[in-house]
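agent> Task received from the user: take the single chain below, predict its 3D structure, and emit structure tokens. No templates, no multimer pairing.
agent> Plan: (1) validate residues, (2) run structure prediction, (3) serialize to tokens, (4) report one or two observations.
agent> Step 1 OK, no nonstandard residues flagged.
tool_call: predict_structure(input=
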Amino acid sequence: MKSPHIGELVLSERQIQEGVEIVAGKLNSQFRDAVIITVVPGGILFTADLVRKLKFDIKMDYISCPHTPGDSQNQSAIVFHENISLHGEDVIMIDDAIESGGTMKRLVSYIQDNYSPKSLSIATLFVKPNRKHIPVPQNYAFEMESDDLLVGYGLPWGDKLRNVPYVSKLVK
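)
tool_result: status=success, residues=172
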């Protein structure tokens, strides 16, 4: 795909698949069953790749809290219909990445405060170094060296580029 916004390669398709395997291995060693909640739309690609590697029973649901990449003060509405009961369940929230961590921290608090899960953890492909503290276990494959804005593999710019099969630095 050609776009003036796609810059230096950060994670190749091969590295992404290795990352999926790493996170799946971590989750497979921790869970016998769980409810997977995908953060949409960004977490769709990672979730699709990850759940096919999980060796335990899962139920799936989704949650949304739209935000602008790089916005650490996201206050948009959280949309969650609880299609699968979370009460007393091990819950894994899956997103493509934890960037500033602001949105994920809000989502974690929302689930903990309203749905009484047995446990709640996060699974992402990568995290950025200056993210906010989120007080639940985090399973990820890569820790980025910088807070550069990134695109591809679920990460958008201007609501585009989510379908780029690798992760690159954003060129504004």
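agent> Step 4: summary for the user.
Residues 108 and 120 are 8 Å apart (CA to CA).
agent> Done.
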